[in-house]
Amino acid sequence: MYYKIHLLLLIVILSACTTDESYTLSIPKNGFEVVQHVSKNNKDKREKNTLYKTPREIKKEELNTAPLTLFIDSLYAVMQRYEGVGIAANQIGKSLQIFIIEAMSDNPRYKILGAVPKQVFINPIITKVSRKKKNFWHGCLSAQDKPRGNVASFEWIEYECFDQEGVRQKGRLEGFSAVVFQHEYRHLMKGTYIDYANHFLPKHVLDQKIKSGELPFFDDAHDSLPLLIEGYQLNTALTDY
Ligand SMILES: [Zn+2]
């Protein structure tokens, strides 16, 4: 009997000690790789994937420290390696409330949409949104070989967060910056555009249709278009999703 109790106790202690690496700031030996989307039908696989785990807040004592700076630099390096315009921590296997956005206007893909200055968002919340919405065809580093999907996002948003130096920031984003912000925000709300869009097109077909004017590009969104950050309640932390 005592033996059994001791064994049970040992198991409890051992399981409490094994921490989920995805909640730490540690950098894997072989560097980071981009985590790929898993379909809703594959529940078991999805539960283990950081794209669908609740990301934790960065603690006050972690702000502006060397480990956090190293992590953010590593996240940025992955974004640059894959030529993304934004990246969220859970896309590289870390359940942390951090994302980065940046698009250069000299990149022909983003010339028309305008530049997105580099910004790091830590523990971001959205405080206000526009009434108007915009339509945009999304692609994603976590949706390799997947078609583009059309979803609506708010024309502008206002946010509060901490920046890389640990300073509290408030701001407003509009245009392409607001689209990329909401795309990354969706990731930290657990999910990708693939879970929300109901109209998909391969990239080469989409490019052709936009070029010929057959499809609208960055126009006002129709009310029937699914909203990218569907379900978000203003002023709530990402741990609530
Ligand atoms: Zn993405």
From TrEMBL:
The active site is at residue 184. Keywords: Hydrolase, Iron, Metal-binding, Protein biosynthesis, Signal. Pfam families: Pep_deformylase. Fe cation binds at residues 140, 183, 187. It catalyses: N-terminal N-formyl-L-methionyl-[peptide] + H2O = N-terminal L-methionyl-[peptide] + formate. Its EC number is 3.5.1.88. Residues 1-18 form the signal peptide. GO terms for molecular function: metal ion binding; peptide deformylase activity. It is an enzyme of class 3 (hydrolase). GO terms for biological process: translation. It comes from the Bacteria. Its cofactor is Fe(2+). Binds 1 Fe(2+) ion. Belongs to the polypeptide deformylase family. Removes the formyl group from the N-terminal Met of newly synthesized proteins. Requires at least a dipeptide for an efficient rate of reaction. N-terminal L-methionine is a prerequisite for activity but the enzyme has broad specificity at other positions. HAMAP family: Pep_deformylase (MF_00163). This is Peptide deformylase. It comes from Brumimicrobium salinarum.
